[in-house]
Amino acid sequence: MAIVVERKRLSWLERTYLPQIVSGLYITLKNFFKPKVTLEYPDQYTSLPAGYRGAPTLVKDSQGREKCVSCQLCEFVCPSKAIKVVPGEISADSEYAYIEKAPSSFTIDMARCIFCGMCEEACPERAIVLQTEFSLNGLSRSELLRDKRSLYAAGGILPDKIMKWKKVKDNSELEGSH
Ligand code: SF4
Ligand code: SF4
What we know:
It contains five helices and five strands. It is of the alpha+beta class.
């Protein structure tokens, strides 16, 4: 059954709208003298909280070697299908030829990335890491497509205990490293 709600009749003062205007101005004035909370970005900038997840990058180890083994787990887990990894072989004459693979190409479409961090969580080598960069822009979608070179340039070095280079793997050494 429908209930008819009776509308309250406005008093003559309310019909002038003056109380509403005055209370609105009061709120404006109250905030006018408070310290400013807005920043004039990008000239002004505030520090990011600990654990902030910005754009994903590729990182190298302390000797400048690629950690990525092109297992494609990050590609499979990415909810927005932003990652494309093309596995490649390590050349037979390399001292690291015993390692299975390395990416021949690795791209992340930053126009699709939602900074969720699933790729970082899935990576067995801690090769893909979300860092603090958050301001990504370009004049076309292709400018937001980051290739391997620019992903490594953005990522830099992240010293870590990884097993990739060892010929004999001992998983107990990895405990506590992630
Ligand atoms: S970044 Fe990590 S998860 Fe992605 S392909 Fe490389 S090793 Fe695998
Ligand atoms: S942060 Fe999320 S959306 Fe971005 S590349 Fe990684 S898994 Fe994909």
